[in-house]
Specification:
Blueprint lengths: L2 H14 L2 H8 L3 H15 L4 E3 L4 E3 L1 H21 L9 E7 L1 H18 L3 E7 L13 E5 L8 E8 L1 E5 L1 H7 L13 E4 L7 E6 L2 E6 L4 E3 L2 H9 L4 E5 H9 L4 E3 L8 E7 L7 H15 L6
Helix pairs in contact: 1-2, 1-3, 1-4, 2-3, 5-9
GO molecular function: DNA-binding transcription factor activity; sequence-specific DNA binding
Family: Belongs to the LysR transcriptional regulatory family.
Keywords: DNA-binding, Transcription, Transcription regulation
Length: about 300
């Protein structure tokens, strides 16, 4: 069979995590996918996956082959897309934080797909930093300082950590004049961010951590916003998350002069080497589209 097709099947198994999901993605039968993997392992002379009842995990040999296969397929895409045949095509895998992805990345992706009809996008939304290499992600939107400096990053803008409450809550309980005054208020804590229950502020030019004792803890940012909108208490969210409610006057921004430094928003790539035309087109499109977003300024 076509050796490039064999590698595409292997990567589909790796990215999907099991034979059945890879078969559905490729529109093939599970037995056919199994036969292809078996033949490839025989050709390589090593097991490419450790098999369990729930998921296939790449062995060291599988991880090495995956890296080479992605590079080879990207080279092939670049080779066949000559100047006279340069339309981006193929599958693009993109990751983004859940709420940011719903509100801003999904519309960007939909417009991108309308412009490039031969591209398919697998958009994965989750409030965790996906492993770009292990999960085969081509590009990821990240909010916050970057922990892996080996990746290539394009800054798209910035957001702030803002303290908000509804006008009804403020009418009932008053507005805190300084971070220390939060101890006398009803607080809503988002537990989506790991670490100590504290909010950081900038006081007299220096960062200061304020320990908070929340009345309500929630592990979903939409729920945090709903609780604040309902007048339960004071919450701390990212500025883009509260932007519609702030604009509508449903929430009020508090302690503004104590806000810490802005948080960067990046588009992160595993590498710029052997970049497929579809990825290059998406990067250019996403950077341009994000430049138009008020929430990132």
């Amino acid at each position: 069979m076509d050796r490039l097709d064999e590698l595409q099947v292997f990567l589909a198994i790796l990215d999907s995590g099991n034979m059945a999901a890879a078969a559905r993605r490729l529109n093939r039968s599970p037995p056919a996918v199994t036969r292809i993997l078996t033949a490839l392992e025989q050709r390589v002379g090593a097991r490419l996956f450790e098999r369990s009842t729930r998921r296939l995990v790449a062995t060291d040999a599988g991880t090495r082959l995956a890296e080479q296969a992605r590079r080879l397929l990207a080279d092939y895409d670049s080779a066949v897309q000559l100047p006279g045949n340069a339309t981006p095509r193929g599958l693009l895998r993109v990751a983004a934080p859940l709420m940011f992805g719903r509100r801003h990345v999904t519309p960007i992706v939909l417009t991108f797909l309308q412009r490039y009809p031969e591209v398919q996008v697998d958009l994965r939304l989750a409030d965790r930093n996906v492993d770009l290499i292990e999960e085969g992600i081509d590009a990821a939107f990240r909010i916050g300082p970057l922990s892996n400096t080996a990746f290539v990053a394009r800054q798209l803008g910035q957001v702030r950590r803002v303290v908000v409450a509804s006008p009804a809550y403020l009418d009932r309980c008053g507005e805190p004049s300084a971070p220390a005054a939060l101890s006398s208020h009803e607080l809503i804590l988002a537990t989506t961010v790991r670490g100590l229950p504290e909010w950081r502020f900038k006081v007299d030019g220096r960062e200061q951590a304020v320990r908070v004792t929340p009345r309500l803890q929630l592990n979903d940012m939409e729920a945090v916003l709903h609780a604040a909108l309902d007048g339960f208490g004071i919450a701390r969210v990212l500025s883009y998350q509260a932007a519609p409610a702030l604009k509508a006057g449903q929430l009020v921004r508090l302690l503004r002069r104590f806000e810490p430094e802005p948080v960067p928003v990046h588009l992160v790539l595993p590498s710029t080497r052997h970049m497929a035309p579809r990825l290059r087109a998406f990067i250019d499109f996403a950077v341009s589209a994000c430049a138009e977003l008020d929430v990132l300024r």
